Amino acid sequence: MQPKEEIQYLTQELEKHNHLYYVLDDPQISDYEYDKMLRRLENLEAAYPEFASPLSPTQRVGGEALSQFEKVEHPVPLESLQDVFSSEELTDFDEKIRETFPKVSYSVEPKVDGLSVALEYVNGQFIRGATRGNGVVGEDVTQNLKTIRSIPMQLENAPSRLIVRGEVFMPKDSFDTLNAKREQAGESVFANPRNAAAGSLRQLDPKIAASRKLDILIFNVQLAEGIEFTSHIESLEYLKCLKFKVIPFTRCENLEQVLKTIQNIDEQRYQLSYDIDGAVVKVDNLQDRQILGSTAKFPRWAAAYKYPPEVKSTVVEDITVQVGRTGVLTPKAVVKPVRLAGTTVTNATLHNQDFITEKDIRIGDTVRIRKAGEIIPEILEVEKEKRPEGTIPYRLPDICPVCGAPVVRDPEGAAMRCTGVQCPAKLVRNLAHFVSRDAMDIEGLGIAIVEQLIQEKLVTSPADLYFLQKNQLLPLERMGEQSVDNLLQAIAASKENDLSRLLYAFGIRQVGAKAAKVLAQTFGTLDRLMDASLEELTQVRDIGAITAENMIAWFSDSQSQKMIQRLREAHVNFSCTLSMEDQRFSGKTFVLTGTLEHFTREEATQKIEAFGGKVSGSVSKKTTYVVAGESAGSKLKKAMELNIPILSETEFLQMIKN
Question: Could you tell me the pTM of the whole model?
Answer without folding.
Answer: 0.57
